[in-house]
Amino acid sequence: MLIQDSINPLYQQLADIIRNSIINGELRCGDKIPTEVELSEKYDVSRITVRAAISELVELGYLVKKQGKGTFVTKPKVQRKIEYLSSFTAACEANGLKVTNEVIKREIVEPEIEDKKDLELEDDDKLIYIQRLRFADGEPLMLENNYFSCKRFNFLLTEDLNGSLYELLKKKYDINPSDSHDSGYDRTTIEIAKAVDEEAELLKVQNGEPLFYIKTVIYDDKNRPVHIGKQYVIGDRYKFVIS
């Protein structure tokens, strides 16, 4: 039960009880929690207190409200610093999630005018297009689309790309993608997009589901362009942190 004269406010105590039930597995992803009225009666607190506790857990990503259906336990959001080079693998592992990757496409394509400019391509150069589906605990979370100069990165056509791409570039080819705050050369934007067709099918979400769309041009520590990235991330499973 809740302690009325505790230093911690009642809503915080209730939020902690529900959160611990989720962490301990008593409440699982997809479970519906009791209504505000039921929680109010069970813990002998006002509905305002219950509402504050639920709001906090929704904000933290433990619960999600569904209009007309109730409040449900949701999958934990992956928290990641708002830097493109912040490792997806490290971010997932920090949140207790195991990362796996699946290469969907690996092919040579013709560059657009903007691609030639961004990657400083020679006139006769083409692009290597690599699409990977990235999983957290076996569930798809990110659809990754990367474009490289074919002349400079032709080795990617035969490399094993199931691990960290940046680690491969660093350790085997001495190519070091630079952090955005250090180099000043990469350009990254984050927008909200809607899942359609291919994205929806691969990420196993409904058409129209909100996604983060991250577009970037990454440079190495010698100020040479490495790749163009166009990534789609499931919106309700991800949270960016400004540091």
From TrEMBL:
Pfam families named in the record: GntR, UTRA
CDD domains: WHTH_GntR (cd07377)
Keywords: DNA-binding, Transcription, Transcription regulation
Alphabetical list of InterPro entries matching this protein: Bact_HTH_transcr_reg, Chorismate_lyase_/UTRA_dom_sf, Tscrpt_reg_HTH_GntR, UTRA, WH-like_DNA-bd_sf, WH_DNA-bd_sf
Record carries keyword DNA-binding: yes
Every HTH gntR-type domain range: 8-76
PANTHER family: MANNOSYL-D-GLYCERATE TRANSPORT/METABOLISM SYSTEM REPRESSOR MNGR-RELATED, MANNOSYL-D-GLYCERATE TRANSPORT_METABOLISM SYSTEM REPRESSOR MNGR-RELATED
Protein name (Swiss-Prot/TrEMBL): GntR family transcriptional regulator
Organism: Clostridium brassicae
Species classification: Bacteria, Bacillati, Bacillota, Clostridia, Eubacteriales
